Amino acid sequence: MKKTLPWIIFGIFCCLFCGWGIKLDHEIKKLEYHHVIDDGYSYALDCVREAEIKYWGYKSDLVDEVQSYIDLIAPTSNLRGYAIVEECEKYNVDVCFVLTQAEIESHFGTKGLGSKINNVFNVGVFDGKSIYEIDKKYKPDHPNESIGLYLELLTTNYLVGKVEEDLMQNYVDKNGSRYASNPDYEAMFSAKYKYICENTKIKEIQDIMHSYAVKCNR
Known about the structure:
By secondary structure, the protein is mostly helical. The chain is built from 9 helices and 2 strands.
């Protein structure tokens, strides 16, 4: 028995080694199918890593650019640039579009009824309603929380078979109801959107960030 034990152990080791070798070979073949492999070095892995680094770099730049614009227009606003960037990425919405709406509706949460209930985009705030008549769900604890509230409404009721540019021409939901009663809302919106795009790097940075997000499969 003592003489056969080493051979048994050796046999088990060989089985494990062969199994691992087969799995490794399978993974390498998968990489070879999609990417170039040279002496075990994956250019694909390097490209993804580089894209990931670039993505986070541009995302940081985008947050700074958005925050700078908010600080410039409404220095007392509690709305944060990082929250806008995160939510816009989650819902895949144009950051400049969201900034435009936030500025028009409540000057980034510093003016009007929206400023009193932390509702930056005036979601659920209708003409003639007092603060006491507004549903509690439209009174978040912080302005940042109103971003998701707004984007959920935007993507499920307004951006249905449409893109942001369509709404700047005719800002109505899927049932034909207007977002705002002001007949000049679209003209005002388009002008402000154009101003933000032309006077900041927000649009440019978001587009680049998105391209790297695609490259690193985000």
